[in-house]
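HUMAN: Would you supply a protein with fold tokens?

ASSISTANT:
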Amino acid sequence: MYYLTVILLMFVLPVGSALLELSVFQGAHGFVRVFGRWFVFWAMGVRLLLAGIRQVFQPRFTAQTILGTKSEDSLHVVQELGFANMSMGAIAVLSFPFGAWVMPSAIAGCLFYGLAGARHVVQKNKNALENTAMVSDLFIFVVLAAYVIIWFTSGTR
């Protein structure tokens, strides 16, 4: 289930939503803007909101299954990570009706996913779930970084 959720939220749903919007509105909002907004909504918003909820209510899944930590001491830290993920995710989801929130969400997501992905890279003895988290974090970092760079350099703000 974890793998399917990651694939759906990090690629299928954002790309599908963007292509649907572009086909319905014939690109009226611009390719980069549409793709960026949907990646912020799905990959940043929904993914972090769901991950945060799970980390708050089932911290052992992240601590033990993904990160391989057996200590009970880590559970409160995972729950606090869950609060942060829920907060960032909620803001990114709300960026859909509040368009001015898209770019701040993209910047926060770019930083979060880039730093989290880099942390996974240096982790030794990663299991398959942590490798999946690493690859998906780095993928979304690249997508959001490209979106932010294009947005700031395009002059169409």
